[in-house]
Design brief:
Order of helices and strands: HHH
Radius of gyration: 21 Å
Number of strands: 0
Number of helices: 3
Shape: rod-shaped
Strand content: under 5%
Helix content: over 70%
Distance between the termini: 46 Å
Structural class: mainly alpha
Length: 57
């Protein structure tokens, strides 16, 4: 991704520097979103009434 973005940005007269921090931040944000989503679904499953789940099957 860094190589593609660097090559693409070279085509512009004014460009921004592309640091590794941008990619690290993207990974951290992705992991936080995934962690929140999985945690929310796990909490929903833990708090669900198992009797209602069995009755619907």
């Amino acid at each position: 991704a860094w190589y593609v973005m660097s090559d693409w940005l070279n085509n512009f007269q004014f460009r921004i520097p592309l640091h590794a921090g941008v990619f690290v931040l993207a990974v951290i944000i992705s992991l936080v979103i995934a962690w929140i989503t999985v945690g929310y679904k796990a909490l929903q499953a833990a708090l669900a009434n198992p009797v209602k789940s069995i009755r619907s099957e």
